[in-house]
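Give me the fold.
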Amino acid sequence: MVYKQWNLAVLIVILIFYGVGNSVAASSTATGTVFLDTNGNQVKDNNEEGLPGVRVSNGEDIVQTDANGQYTLAVSDDTILFVIKPRGFMTPIDENRLPKFYYVHKPHGSPDGLKYAGIAPTGPLPESIDFPLTEQPEADTFKVLVFGDTQPYNMQEIEWLAHDVVEEVIGTDAVFGISLGDLVGDDLSLFHPLNEVMATVGIPWYNVYGNHDMNFLATDDRYADETFERVYGPTCYSYDWGPVHFINIDNVYFHRDEEDRPRYLGEIGERQLTFIRNDLALVPKDQLIVVSMHIPLKEMRDVEKLMNLLGSRPHTLSLSAHTHFQRDDFVGPEHGWHGDDAHHHHNHATTSGSWWTGAFDEVGIPHTTMRDGAPNGYGIFTFTGNQYSIRFKAARRPANYQMNVWAPWEVVSEETGETDVIVNVFGGTKRSTVEIRVSEDGEWQPMTYMPQEDPYYKALKARDDTNHLERKLHTALRETMKPQLKEDSELPQRGKRLSGIVKSSHIWQAKLPVDVPKGTHVIYVRTTDMFGQIFTGRRIIRVR
């Protein structure tokens, strides 16, 4: 009888323990202080004051700190708490210039079985989770660098990224940078060497989660981003810089199909939509909102829900990458937008171009022309108040290289009026105007907006396909001769085969004038983009 009573008592204690434990896990609260870190040691010293009115979030709910800089938020066993950086302040940044604005609370850590390391167990919730901020000046006008899909699959491609793109932006006057997902190409061990290269730019760098940044051995979407979170923190967060409010979101929904293969689709999901709703409720309506994501806006299953949250705000911009070509969409009511003017969605060019493919140049870097015929490159965004402008910059090209003008080298004089001139304006949109004239004293004539496959890339791809067999034979020769080669590099390297062509959304077309006299002439092309920026291009032809 005593034995049975003892067992019953133990059972009751165990049940109480687990019941209380589960109750605490479900209703735990985190508290802490957002403070002005005057000495920069990232620890709240007794003489350092809390900052009132600063927003703090658990990824869904948002609270503002009280008069003493204190906050309280509910947490689960899978929560990342973060401070929403206010204007005029900065969070700590680490040795790789990554902003550290968050605290990960995962007492049990990431699940086992992931190919790449997730988060180690963080243990019990600390008594106080404090967020240090330091003061910094932030002007009404500032620049931001924007990269799409750096996406290296190996260290060789990180080297190409370093030499092709990163070296030229070191010392930039931009105040921070954003990468729009696909930071790496499936090999998540490359996060660290990539970050080391990006750190050389010398500015803070914010990162968006992409489909090639997922942990493919995850069981579902909840755990696919564990490695990303270990390195970069939350996948959905916001911050202010100057007069602009930035929101970075995760719109890559990971799942496994019926055969247990990893798949993804474009979706934000209800948790992030709740965060965005709560976030926007604390942002003045006349403030510019910039939403950065990876998959293009119109490819998301819940695009209308996001557009409804942005409502009729007069100043919004959204950014994506993913496609490896540049395109601008002007989104209207058909996708849930209700503003007076269409919402501008900019699908950005990629720094990796067409996945580092194509023939090598004189310094051993593939030309990696994008599928729309534009070169690989990046964006320079200028923000002034609630206005913005975008300038595309081709990698290792002059800043004024903004278009390719295609026309035959020689034209029979009787056929000039039937000869097409095709212009690919790399950063052009349907709101751009493009004009053409022949010779300096010719009259400017409008060109017609005609999206189509880029003729230069089409010819490049045809030649590449023709050489594909030669490339295969070359590879076979390398394998055959390996025993005789001292080094693998003794045979010349060949670039990877180019990817498929797409219709470019930034091409204009016109006929040459009918009365061009015989001789050598210069074709001039002038474009004015939606921001009023003017760029020019030239091409020499002979009329015989």
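The first strand starts at residue 28 and ends at 36.
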